[in-house]
Specification:
about 0% strand, mainly alpha, transmembrane helix, 9 helices
């Protein structure tokens, strides 16, 4: 394939508007991962400890931003100040853990929906890597190693 085609595709991904659809896909897959990590006792744990369940889901959703902020010497909890993204994370957490008859969880686990969400999350990841490297380049213009580490 032509390298120009890849460049055009990369420029289109950079210009994509991520909010709210790509954020929803990312939050949904993170909430599913937390629920699956809890195993068979997910329902009872989420009912007994809703704050711990919510907090672990939010840490999963915002982990990348928190790690990058720690590496760049910025406030670690800064990603949580994005209220619309926090609301999306909270709503998806609620849908995955608390909808009646586990409808939200079952719909999210439905393979075609999960595949579409995973594809959207990969596009979201590419955009976040670009944004992270751009941010590191603004803070440390000649530190290529820092840009590479943040891009990882």
């Amino acid at each position: 394939m032509d390298p120009e085609a890849f460049l055009d595709l990369a420029n289109q991904v950079i210009k994509l508007k991520m909010y709210p659809y790509f954020d929803i896909a990312h939050s949904l897959l993170c909430a599913l991962a937390v629920r699956e990590d809890l195993g068979a006792g997910a329902q009872s744990f989420s009912r007994k400890h809703p704050l711990a369940c919510w907090l672990s889901t939010m840490l999963m959703i915002f982990a990348g931003g928190m790690v990058v902020n720690g590496l760049l010497g910025e406030p670690i909890l800064a990603p949580l100040k994005n209220t619309p993204q926090l609301v999306i994370g909270t709503v998806t957490w609620y849908v995955v853990f608390y909808t009646p008859f586990d409808v939200g969880y079952k719909v999210a686990k439905f393979l075609p929906i999960k595949v579409v969400a995973a594809a959207m999350k990969e596009i979201y990841r590419a955009k976040k890597v670009y944004d992270g490297v751009s941010h590191a380049a603004k803070l440390y213009p000649n530190a290529y190693l820092i840009m590479i580490i943040v891009g990882e």
